[in-house]
Amino acid sequence: MPKRTLRQRHALRYAEPYIYLAPTIGLFVFILLIPLYNLFKYSLGDSNIVQGFKEWNNFDNFKYLANGRFLDSLKVTGIYVLFGVLGVVFFGTIVALALDKPIPGRGLFRCLVIIPWVVPQALAATMWRWVLNAQFGFLNQALMALGLIEENIGFLSKDTALATVIVVRIWQGTPFMIMSLLSALQTVPEDIHEAASLDGVNGLQRFFYITLPFIRPVLLTTTVIVTAWTVQIFDSVYILTSGGPARATQLVALEIYSKAFTQNDLGTACAIALVVLAIIMVLSVIKSKFDEEGGLL
């Protein structure tokens, strides 16, 4: 077998990293760049699921972004994300602080709080739909048995559906916040807490002036991640309400689905998806900034 020249060996050494990276780059192109290219392409013309891109339509798809129906879905999404994320942060922080204390059964409680996170969203939404049913749902029956209500509550009615799906989102997202903050709380030196106790510092002061500065990077980064996930939520809300009643829970993700698969308007669906993509990109930039400042995720 002929020996390689010095130039050939240098060329092989130079190309070796790229040879190893080639499968990953190919996969990246296949699962990300090609769909992204099609997203932009379909958004610029008349497109549908069957025929794909048909013809250029002078940005008509983007005119829907100023339509009242889309703006309403954007408003609903904003409310859903705002209160959903605030609820996740609030309850996640409280539970994490409680489980960081040496309470009886702490290990068991730490296992139990993960359950909403590991249960598939579709299965969880189906379970909640049964629990919240206005006629025979478990929650109505329990409240009735306790004498707290005299007639069944329509948790998924027009006036309460948005609040209900927000509660479900908080239930699903809180475990991630708890697990992240529990890890961060392990970095807080115990001797600082002991010194603060000797100085007469109360629990609230210890949290704001000792604990919070230590967990702040993780808290901020996790909040950004939860926000990005909440913007994209589809399956749980679709199973619970399908965007109704009367579009009371019509999130942007459901608007994309409706346009693409119900109205066969893939072009407008892709135009809306670009808005969601822009929001996710902004959140990704914010997360990167937090990481540069010392975030742990």
Which helices and strands occur, and which strands form pairs?
Layout (H helix, E strand, L loop, with lengths): L5 H38 L1 E4 L3 E5 L3 H4 L4 H32 L6 H7 L2 H4 L2 H11 L6 H8 L15 H25 L4 H9 L4 H29 L3 H7 L10 H11 L3 H27 L5
Antiparallel strand pairs: 1-2
Helix pairs in contact: 1-13, 3-8, 3-10, 6-11, 8-10, 8-11, 10-13, 12-13
Structure, described:
This protein folds into two domains: 38 residues, no CATH class; 231 residues, MetI-like fold, CATH 1.10.3720.10. Helix content is 71%, strand content 3%. Strands 1-2 form a two-stranded antiparallel ribbon.
Keyphrases for this structure?
MetI-like fold, mainly alpha, 2 domains, 13 helices, two-stranded antiparallel ribbon, 3% strand, 297 residues
CATH topology of the largest domain: MetI-like fold
The CATH homologous superfamily of the largest domain is named: MetI-like
Q: Give the overall silhouette.
A: flat
The largest sheet, given as strand count, sense and whether it forms a barrel, is: 2 strands, antiparallel
Radius of gyration over C-alpha positions, nearest whole angstrom: 25 Å
